[in-house]
Design goal:
Length: 421
């Protein structure tokens, strides 16, 4: 039985969507910079701080509860990324910090003459940590180019630069500025064929599609909970055998057990509680859809698969509406894939430039109307530099599954009025 997307149910979960600016509800199109969060995430953070606040290892109730929370969260986030082993999940401050820590440890296994592949499509958080680590190890960085016409990764260039000297390929699952989704399964296959490891940045991908580390065959994956409806905390997944074999920089004493040996200092336990609640929201969306369609109940991963299937279909509808509307407005150039028939190859993140108006002016005016969009380069410096878009950058419209067609139409009307005035 076909079921329409339960947008009202979803929006009812997010208290921020009730905010008013200029006598109108705010339309949040800034999701790629950080999503809004459901009430249960706010409650989980508050409950931890109010009822369970303790460090680990104590012989009392709140410490026991903190330990139980952490063990449960490791299992929950493992299911989220598509892993079977809870010990493969490492929590940290954010994706960038975790990537710096991993790059520092991995670089100790590299030598002069080794090569590291990064791309010109990525956020700098998946470029500079590897550039600096390669520099320290005496390894060589090679950049995979993009096709400027549609901002897709140049897979021919990737294949040409991949070699038996390649030790690591660092690539994003999806671009945070133009939305391009990369064929990561094929990238992993080709990299492994020459003996290279693959590190995937799923920060921008995870709000829109479900990661699948074991299905893809990657070696490492990082994401940030605040992009998929949780608080500010980072998640790193690694193959357990790799997490065990590497030596991270740690204080003394250090546990030899994973993932503890990778988690430096006192963790953000309330953030971990919120991250688990964010995944719980997505799973409940899957359960809600299952109830509407009469589907048999299943595992946490099953619920997430169902939720993301519906999210993807709904967001593609919004993408078609936005891309079609922008195409009708003069003096606007949309970056990346604009073919309505290829929306499945991109996330619902659409960036554009205007022939004469700076991005910051457009963002300012739309913000005054309660239309919250991003402007700048969003740390996707390789993209904006390659396309000659510095220093102004772009306007970025980031749709999420809590957005509506009415909000998109309101945004298009605001852009049309602004650019034609």
């Amino acid at each position: 039985m076909s079921v329409s997307f339960p947008i009202d149910w979803c929006r009812s979960q997010f208290p921020a969507l009730r905010r008013i600016v200029a006598d109108q509800p705010v339309a949040f199109f800034d999701g790629p910079g950080g999503s809004q969060v459901p009430q249960r995430v706010i409650d989980a953070v508050g409950h931890y701080l109010g009822q369970t606040n303790a460090n680990r290892g104590g012989r009392y109730a709140t410490a026991f509860e903190s330990d139980e929370l952490l063990e449960s969260a490791h299992a929950t986030l493992a299911a989220f990324v598509g892993a079977t082993q809870a010990e493969s999940i490492v929590f940290g401050a954010n994706m960038t910090t975790l990537t710096f820590a991993l790059s520092r440890a991995l670089s100790r296994t590299w030598n002069s003459g080794d090569e590291i592949l990064v791309t010109r499509l990525d956020h700098d958080g998946n470029v500079t940590p590897w550039v600096l680590a390669a520099r320290d190890a005496g390894a060589t960085i090679r950049y995979v180019d993009i096709c400027k016409s549609d901002c897709t990764l140049d897979l021919t260039d990737f294949a040409a630069k991949l070699s038996p000297r390649t030790r690591l390929v660092a690539v994003g699952c999806a671009s945070n500025i133009v939305g391009t989704i990369n064929p990561v399964r094929e990238i992993c296959r080709q990299a492994h064929a020459v003996g290279a490891q693959v590190f995937l940045d799923a920060v921008h991908y995870a709000p829109h599609a479900l990661p699948a580390v074991e299905e893809w065959g990657c070696d490492w994956l990082a994401c940030s909970a605040y992009k998929f409806f949780g608080p500010h905390i980072g998640i790193l997944w690694g193959r357990p055998e790799l997490l065990k074999s590497l030596t991270p920089y740690k204080l003394r004493p250090v546990t030899e057990a994973i993932p503890g040996r990778w988690m430096t200092g006192t963790q953000n336990f309330e953030g971990i509680a919120g991250a688990q609640a964010g995944v719980g929201y997505l799973a409940d969306l899957g359960r809600h859809l299952g109830t509407l369609s009469g589907a048999v109940d299943g595992t946490l991963r099953n619920h997430l698969v169902r939720a993301y299937g519906a999210i993807g279909e709904y967001e593609r509808e919004l993408s078609r509406l936005l891309l079609s509307g922008l195409a009708e407005i003069g003096q606007i150039r949309v970056l990346g894939l604009t073919d309505i028939g290829r929306v499945h190859e991109r996330t619902p993140t659409v960036s554009f430039v205007h022939d004469t108006l700076p991005a910051i002016e457009i963002a300012d005016e739309l913000g005054r109307q309660g239309l919250f969009v991003g402007h700048g380069n969003f740390y996707a410096l390789q993209v904006t530099e390659t396309l000659g878009l510095e220093p102004d950058g772009v306007i970025r419209v980031g749709l999420m599954h809590y957005n509506t067609a009415a909000e998109v139409n309101r945004l298009l009307a605001g852009i049309r009025e602004l650019t034609q005035s």
